[in-house]
Amino acid sequence: MYDFIKGKLGNDGYDELFPELIPKYKVLKFSSEAKNVFKAGKKLWQYYHSQPSANTNASLYDIREFFQGRDDSGKMNSKSGDDTYTILIGELRSALKTLAQKIEPKVYEYGFLLE
Hints:
Order of helices and strands: HHHHH
Low-confidence stretches: none
Number of domains: 2
Mean pLDDT: 87
Strand content: under 5%
Largest sheet: none
Helix content: 40-55%
Number of strands: 0
């Protein structure tokens, strides 16, 4: 993913055999709203990994489950008793909502969804 974002992908030597088939990738540029999502996600990720029993391969769902836990029926709880987590997940959700508002018009403009 890092190489893709930076505009570099492994070419496995195919560029020498068939250079016309290799697309030219550009470095991706992110809006300030997208960068805010990255920053909020990173803060949450760092906080999770500061926990002694953190799983190094945890997804956002795993992180939410870690802090929110599950009820007796196995359903994930909607809240957490960890105040820091609650603040960080709130910041991430807010950043995601702001980004969604920015890209929503383009979803219709480019025809991904019809009005």
